[in-house]
Amino acid sequence: MKVVGLKIEKGLVAAAVVQKDFRRTELVDSFSQSFATDAELVDILKDRSKDWTGAKIVSSIPGSLFTQRTLTLPFADRKRIEKALPFEVEDSVPFGLEDVVLDHLALSSGGAKKDAASQVLCMMLPKTVLRQHLDLLSSAGLDPQVIVPSYAGLSAVAKMMPQDTGALLLCGPDMCFRQNGVLKTLRSFSGSHSTGGLRHILQALETEHKEKVEKATLLTDDGAARAVLAETGMAVELVIPEINGKKAQDPVSLGIALLDEVNFRRGEFAYRVADEGTRRRTRTLIIAGAVAALLFTVNIAVKFSVVQSGYGKLDAEIKDIYRQTFPDGKPSADPVRQMRDKMNEAKKLFGALGSGTSALDVMKTVTDGIPKEVRVIFTEFVLEGDRLRLQGEVPSFDSVDKIKAELQKSPLFTDVTVQDTRMGVDNKVKFRFEMKLKQTM
């Protein structure tokens, strides 16, 4: 499988392309290129991505745009951690969790024991930032499957480094700190070296972990960073990570390509694979509909001049259009009816585009499915295509389970999932559901 690690920061875009097989990982290509405007960046991506067809694209957002908290939890199971994170960080951040996307990276755990304590890095990204990033890549014709913070790539790079490398790994504005080979934190700084961004990070690390950093490892030959580190009396070495003797032009982009644990494309931003067969059937249906409409118009218009042109000439023109639309098909004596039959066949293959079910029908089905003993207040009802999102509040968590159970019984809905449940300040449980309408309804 080909994987592209894409790093975009202010004025610089870099990528590393790796080929992952069952037993071997190879660095295929890499580049690092500066740009001045978004338009220039889009042109670079359009040109470079010509060789990325079929690849998994992992794109990063600058780590300085994320908010993060380090947490210690009494369990290591990833699913339990994901459920616990909103409750653990809700009171410690100055914004509503509905405005951000959450994910986490395990820093340390109890190994294979899922009930052992673990330390995790909880990361939060504003939805507006994520949407802007996806829109920018979309303008370049890219739809990445995975979105990560830039510094997360260093967690993968750290695993490639020799044991005797420094506790601090530094690459541009991204850094990774380890103690005795154990990952302790990842972060980015937005200030330049000259304004003290790196100095501030070093002071914060030593205060937080109660350990003086004696040695740092630069992953790129960064003269400004080397000067700042030298002022602190810290030993500095340059180690450029490599795969089978090949070095990427940007180590962070290489780590991003190798990263598997993090993805901020979730919820409303989740990556959805477009089925090529569905797209072909959709195109066929649209073309067939347009051609049928054209044939109908031609048929009516020419009837007014049938005396002059003759019905035989019209019939020949219709058959010729049919042959152009369906070159493999043989027109019958009634090509217009045959065209309509083709449209009906395409509809059966594609599925009903409109089910005939209105928003009021959906709302009535939802309210009818609420158990009589459950009092619920809905605050959001969003129907987009075949997706329905509900948000509201109920007296207890048990009420949420009852509502979900009843909705799952409905013949109108499928894939009923609980996106979020949490206790509000008014002692009422706030919930978010998402479900899909069955197209056969």
Describe what this molecule looks like in 3D.
The chain has 441 residues and is of the alpha+beta class. Among the domains are: 163-240, Nucleotidyltransferase, domain 5; 276-350; 359-437, Gyrase A, domain 2 (2-Layer Sandwich). The chain is built from 13 helices and 19 strands. It has helices spanning 38-48, 78-89, 127-139, 153-160, 197-209, 223-231, 251-258, 276-303, 306-309, 311-325, 335-350, 359-368, 397-409; strands at 2-9, 12-20, 25-34, 56-61, 67-73, 100-108, 118-126, 146-149, 168-171, 174-179, 182-188, 215-218, 235-238, 242-243, 246-247, 377-384, 387-394, 413-423, 429-437. The strands form five sheets. The protein has a five-stranded mixed beta sheet with strand order 3-2-1-4-8. A five-stranded mixed beta sheet has the order 11-10-9-12-13, with helices on both faces. A four-stranded antiparallel beta sheet has the order 16-17-19-18, sandwiched between helices. Strand 18 (413-423) and strand 19 form a beta hairpin. Helix 4 (153-160) crosses helix 7 (251-258) and helix 8 runs antiparallel to helix 10 (311-325). The longest helix is centred in the middle third of the chain and has 28 residues, at 276-303. The radius of gyration is 29 Å and the shape is flat. Mean pLDDT is 85; it is low at 275-279 and 349-354.
